[in-house]
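Now read these lines:
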Amino acid sequence: MRVLVTSSRNTFALDLIRKLGSTGHTVFASDTYAGAIGNHSKYLAGHFVTSSPRFNTDEFIGDLVNIVEEHRIDVIIPTFEEAFYLAARGHELPDGTSVFTGGFEQLARLHDKASFKRLAIEAGVPVPETIVANSPEELQAAIDQYPRYFARAAFSRGGVGLLTNTGPLAGKMSVDEAVPTPDQPWLVQPFVDGPMICTYSIVVDGRVTAHCTYRAPEQWAHSTGISFLAIDSTETLDYTQKLVDALDSSYTGQLSFDFVDNDGGLFAIECNPRPTSGVILLEAEEVSQAFAGTNPEPFVVAPGVERQVKLAVLADAFAEPIKHLPKSLHDLLHVRDVGAGWHDELAMLWSPATIVHGAQLSHGERTELLAALGADIVWNGEPIDGMLPEDRAALEAVHEQRV
């Protein structure tokens, strides 16, 4: 199989490249800047720089058409929110090339946190009580209902832009900084105590073919994980299949869910219809077979498997040495790095280029780095240039499905 992995800046994209490239596939990579870490893996047959899917959608699609035609790509595997632009404009790709992601309506319903809540309820998956706020006044009225609250935008990701009065992120964002609108609503929920549980799944024709449930013992700035520990998947695998069944039995793509473990009871919080770091815990052959859908039973990562991004763990340790240094030093000695055994060290040496790219995208504004890092590849619910009329209608229908 000849594969193009897009948005190769992410550590999990690099992991996918290594695993597919090491199992006999011919792998290419692309991103919107040359320094993306995945573009420098030795497991690649080639790499490319494309236009931004968000800011230059026509040019982005044109770039991919050229890559697909020249290199005879069989399947494009998106690893971030360029998936939405590809779902909306994938019909423009040459015949014989598929995109490993769901249809636009499916992705929109999963990504919009408000409509996702309704999907979860339909699937019988527990979710917290939720109020959708369409204005600053509604937001204030909603948070006034809960002594302890948790709020975020319907289109958000990566633990960025969280409004709460409880926990380590309390007060990091003020109510005045949140400006809900009917097109960009916010969700308000009672604060649910308990650790965050994450999942990653590969789905082919409505069937989960690989699944991982994990915690992030180490996090960067209380948001994105930098170490990953697999835990029991019995309940989350059942919930994931129920969500896929409620969505559409034909769904093919990658899915990642976040749950809160409230004293043993799981509550679904959000969905990222794309890969996340859980793929790092799967073996290469499992990933290859799961994408093909050839395994009769899903591959499930056993509890106890653990990996870390050593460079990030080390940086975090010295950012808050009193709090993190002892545990980080233990992990650095005993937990396997995501790059161990690949002999592909050059790729991660390009990590500073990603920081520079994020700084350039922020244009000197006071922007959280994690948000800036993906600013040119995100989708925030707006109509996409050149989308089909039926997809535009589907987007309006998704807005009507909000809780």
Notes: The first strand starts at residue 2 and ends at 6.
